[in-house]
Design brief:
Capsule_synth_CapA; Poly-gamma-glutamate biosynthesis protein; six-stranded mixed sheet; Purple Acid Phosphatase, chain A, domain 2; alpha/beta
Length: 383
């Protein structure tokens, strides 16, 4: 402290000496007002941390027809490699805090048999490709869940486990069926439930708990149990509706309304129609009635069956809880090639511009049909 005072005394004396030697201003010269010397610490303006948030991206039906398996064998040089099929959407999938796929078909063991419609059985390498693309979880309740009975459920979930993809919608054991799927997305606990309207060809559940059949009360019970287990947000994935119908059915709208009226469900994602369906906001929450096909190669393509959307939502924690503050849709298209490739039409890619324009225009009209655009629904600018 003494050194500081001595230093200041020396400086002060020097300033007085300089002032004494300076010439006085002329009588007619304006006087100069010298502000007193002050030492201040300038602090930056206060800033507030942004509220907690996370993004979730969900995509449509993964429907593996034989032509896609043939393409995977060609891509792998004799091995089955589906990675290039999904590569076009990898950038979008990998940037999401939580990326969700819908695996509509069961996966067989490594030696097959591999089958298409009506009793699907896809190669297990599909799960590997989904993991490499960036998916964190897959929902598995669909009308094809029991195409190959309990054995098909077990081989599907085994393949997903090996690939490191978590899942919900079907189960190998009763305990697994009762265990909620809760993932962390940017530090937030997000739960998922998965249900289907029924099962094909009169197949029955080997056990009633092996897959979830759609019922509003059952969905709400599962969602509430998931929140009791610690989930802050719950997403319901529903396999429902009518194939090749772009308008949601009255039943879809009624189910969505009842689910979103309950605080246990925060977002509804739909599948099964194989065409894109609208987005809508009900009770302040979003429902995407149908995301179309993510990948498929129908024997008779319709144009609409090759179109889909990736739904992206940004959840933010507000005073009254979590809400999807923004909703986006990213158009996709299965380029039938050859080679067959999934394309993200929201990016500037090399593709037939006329076909891309047709797909984007049709998707825009359908997705916005229920006034979702007026609630803040957006599509990224293509570029």
């Amino acid at each position: 402290m003494s050194r500081v005072r001595a230093s200041m005394g020396f400086v002060g004396g020097l300033l007085l000496l300089v002032a004494a030697c300076a010439p006085e201003p002329a009588d007619d010269a304006p006087g100069e007002v010298v502000a007193p010397f002050r030492s201040e610490t300038v602090l930056p303006p206060p800033t507030s941390a942004p509220p907690p948030s996370f993004t979730v991206l969900a995509t449509g039906d993964v429907l593996i027809h034989p032509a896609l398996t043939a393409q995977a064998i060609e891509d792998g040089g004799g091995r089955r490699d589906f990675t290039n099929l999904f590569a076009g959407v990898r950038p979008a999938v990998q940037t999401a805090d939580l990326a969700i796929c819908h695996l509509e078909v069961p996966l067989a063991g490594p030696n097959g048999p591999f089958q298409g419609f009506p009793l699907f059985y896809a190669p297990p390498e599909v799960a590997t490709a989904l993991a490499r693309t960036g998916y964190d979880t897959c929902t598995t309740a669909s009308n094809h869940t029991f195409d190959h009975g309990a054995a098909g459920v077990r081989s599907t979930l085994d393949a997903l486990d090996r690939a490191g993809i978590r899942h919900t919608g079907s189960a190998r054991t009763r305990q697994e069926a009762l265990t909620p799927l809760i993932s962390e997305a940017n530090g937030v606990k997000v739960g998922q439930v998965s249900f289907t309207f029924g099962f094909n060809l009169g197949t029955r559940e080997p056990e009633p708990w092996m897959s979830n059949e759609l019922d509003v009360n059952a969905v709400l019970a599962a969602a509430r149990a998931t929140k009791r287990a610690g989930a802050e947000v719950v997403i319901a994935s529903l396999h429902w509706g009518e194939e090749h119908r772009a308008d949601p059915t009255p039943e879809q709208r009624s189910i969505a309304d009842r689910l979103l009226a309950d605080p246990a469900v925060d977002l509804v994602i739909g599948h099964h129609a194989h065409v894109v369906q609208p987005f809508e906001k009900l009770h302040g929450k979003w429902v995407a009635y149908g995301l179309g096909n993510h990948v498929a190669r129908h024997e008779q393509p319709r144009g609409t069956t090759e179109e889909g959307v990736m739904a992206r939502f940004r959840f933010v924690k507000e005073a009254d809880g979590w809400t999807a503050q923004s909703a986006e849709y990213l158009p996709t298209l299965v380029d039938l090639g050859p080679p067959i490739r999934l394309k993200d039409l929201s990016r500037n890619i090399e593709f037939d511009p006329a076909r891309a324009d047709v797909a984007i225009d049709r998707i825009d009209q359908v997705v916005r049909a229920r006034a979702g655009i007026n609630e803040g629904l957006t599509r990224p600018v293509i570029g």
